[in-house]
Amino acid sequence: MGAFHPEPIQPLGPEECWALLEGVPVGRLVVVMAGEPDVFPVNFAVDDRGLVVRTDIGMKFFAAEQRGRAALEVDHWDAETGCTVVARGTLRVLTDPAERAHAESLDLHPWLDTPKAHLIRLDVEEITGRRFTLNDAARAAQAGG
User: Fold this and answer.
1) Do strands 69-77 and 50-55 pair parallel, antiparallel, or not at all (unpaired)?
2) Per residue in 89-120, pLDDT tens?
3) Which domain CATH number covers 82?
4) Is residue 83 part of a domain?
């Protein structure tokens, strides 16, 4: 029988959420186009309470061009706990020259050898996170057994 954890789910404060975002290299960007959600794995940079992503013409770009609502979700797991953060806001294409120049200075490089000429930004309006205390089965799975 597993150990009892009186509070297996704990909310994270905003600063903890931002710190987790800064330490995770990949997230999942969720956009909605024509009423249909789509999810994309992306690398991103945290910038002044926003998230910047490189992209090419496609669904992410079109959602940003329409200033659509979007979310970015990240996870982090270790042997004892898991954390998840969701940042929600409005997606937009960076077109202002000063804003683009600043975004170009961020440590944000494509991971694939495909064109990524556009920069989009999720202006975060809400950020939430939770830490999970893993049960015995999850800890065993994390350990590979």
Assistant:
1) unpaired
2) 999 999 999 999 999 999 898 888 888 999 99
3) 2.30.110.10
4) yes
